[in-house]
Write a structure and sequence with these properties.
Helix content is about 10%, strand content about 50%. It is mainly beta. The chain has an 8-stranded antiparallel beta barrel.
Length: about 190
């Protein structure tokens, strides 16, 4: 589930690439300053929501204002950094029932295309040893100079996927099959 969140973060970063007014540049996702997050939620048996995040991830994106459709993004997530605010549940999420972090310590997202006119970022999400295409709906939050002499751009994005599509077959019932991701990305121009 957290890997999905990470993917969402990666897609969000790609959306930054489609923002007008940004000159061709490379950006590093600002995880050092905690200005980015990969969040997820899954229905708990259809009765409530289980929410969490991945605490350790990193990545970069490239954006060319003259050709935003050529934008690229790459993100890598430490799957063991999953955090649902409950130690025992996190231990279960890290187990072979879900992320199997001992076998698959990293998840990743690599863009394959960006449609600036619709804000849809396409790419390959690798989670639990399985690579599948995903699409992230991206929205620009803002861009501009920061107080430390740098330049930043921020985006948010959403996506969803079925756990079974990534080889996670633990059956928690039909209400709990889909992982919903919400990504927030702030990049620092290099």
């Amino acid at each position: 589930m957290k890997l999905n969140t990470t993917l969402a973060g990666a897609l969000l970063a790609t959306s930054i690439l489609a923002a007008p007014g940004i000159q061709a540049a490379d950006y590093t996702i600002d995880t050092k300053g905690a200005h980015a997050s990969i969040n997820f939620r899954v229905s708990h048996l259809g009765y409530s929501w289980l929410e969490g995040r991945f605490n350790e991830f990193g990545g970069q994106f490239s954006y060319d204002e003259a050709n935003p459709n050529a934008s690229t993004v790459e993100v890598e997530i430490n799957t063991a950094s999953v955090d649902s605010n409950h130690a025992e549940r996190d231990k279960h999420i890290r187990s072979g029932d879900f992320l199997d972090v001992d076998t698959y310590p990293k998840a990743s997202f690599k863009s394959t295309g960006f449609a600036a006119d619709t804000g849809v970022l396409s790419g390959d999400l690798t989670l639990h040893g399985v690579t599948k295409p995903v699409q992230i709906q991206v929205s620009k939050i803002g861009q501009g100079d920061d107080p430390w002499g740098g330049y930043r751009a921020g985006f948010s994005g959403t996506t969803e996927f079925k756990m079974k599509d990534f080889g996670m077959t633990k059956n928690l019932g039909p209400a709990s099959e889909t992982v919903y991701m919400e990504l927030h990305v702030e990049g620092i121009r290099q």
